[in-house]
Amino acid sequence: MSELYDRIAPSYMATRREDPRLAVLIRDALGPDVRTVINVGAGAGAYEPRDLDVTAVEPTAAMRANRPPGAAPALDARAEALPFGDRAFDASMTVFSDHHWQDRAQGLRELRRVARQRVVVLTYDPAFADAYWLIRDYLPGFGRLPGMAVDEVAAHLGGAEVRRVPVWHDCVDGFLLAYWRRPEAFLDPDVRAAISVFHRLPEEEIQEAIGRLRADLHGGAWAERNRDLLELDRLDVGLVLVVAGA
Asked: Model pTM?
């Protein structure tokens, strides 16, 4: 993961910003009774609750360097071996990170181990791959990437509630699912540079997909296939909050 994010980090902050609506959902999932939280795979610090005592863990130096002034200092450590005792924090959290861990199951068990009350994981449900036009029509190779069913994520946390999170059409955090109503965004190299899947698939596969998307946008085929999306404000494209201990 560190090598991947060494490539992503230089352009990450151009399009990856905290969406305040998503931040509210994450904070609500952590609950009103927590005071200390560990954020694992913390990156640049988006979605870290400002009213809590945050300990950040981030193994990539380039991402640690992106953390803004005033953010919690980030410890260089891996999710699979958190250097803290059992139940050291009221809660643990991870946002858009667990799919990059070398041993995802172990990392999830570590989140559960160090939390006294609650674990919150914002992640992707791979069962929804065919619900998203980008994956279904242009990037079928996404299915070759390692994944984990949401039920399995919940099981590694010792059981958890899965909360579906429809994505706003104007989401300001430029993750893969954010542009479901703004397909032209994927033609921008800066947008793609901050999304990990565009670094994990072969470059020729990416360029072929973007070429077809560009042609479909210019020729009207994309709008014809996806006209029903254009009037929606939110859409379930597979984003979920997995909440253990609620």
From this structure: 0.93
